[in-house]
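User: Can you predict the 3D structure of DOMON domain-containing protein? Sequence below.
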Amino acid sequence: MMIQDDNPYRHKAILDPSGKYQLEWLVKWNEKRVIFNVTVATNGYVGFGLSRKGKMTGADLIVGGVGKDGKPYFTDRHAIGNQLPKLDPSQDWTLHEAWEKGAQTFLSFSRPFETCDGDHDLPITDDVMTIIWAYSENDDELQYHFQNRGGYNVYLLDPDLAPREMNNLRRNNGEEGSTRVFNVTGSITLNEEDFMYWCSYHKVPTRTKQHIIGVS
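Assistant: Sure. Here are the predicted structure tokens for DOMON domain-containing protein:
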């Protein structure tokens, strides 16, 4: 499942300083699913995961690659401490494609925003998440202490990547849909001083917790 170049909602990132681990992701808003493509400079296994605080403990992980027999392998795992990631009873990540070419491994996989495996999977929300990445030089043995590993903070559901249809939710001054728009106005008389500080307070028209996704 390749991400097309003309898709306006794709995003790319290089996760490691040497450029050996490249990520591309696409938010499928109508399916409430995120597709991930990773290209890694290795012929060994590839690790990829989601974490709330950048730590292994509690992370939602996959390990995949292409074996010496040319067949792909792919597992949904979770980290519980200073030990090897454990297999999830419910395999909620989906592998779409896997291949090796030269010294590179390519994996395409996806996961819904929410799964029914709340004990082992993290929900994908509009909050910041840490992508945990790792890779090995071989396929033979999964190791806890990856030699090549790191973390990358990202907003996977960045509002800037939202489809154009979401603009329809902003009609009637934001009274319809899940995205609300309200105007803040005020006036001030400037004095003749070189510097002036102005502080004002405004009541937000809601009593529930909200996320501000844009100010203009």
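Residues 10-161 form a domain with the Immunoglobulin-like fold (CATH 2.60.40.1210). The radius of gyration is 22 Å.
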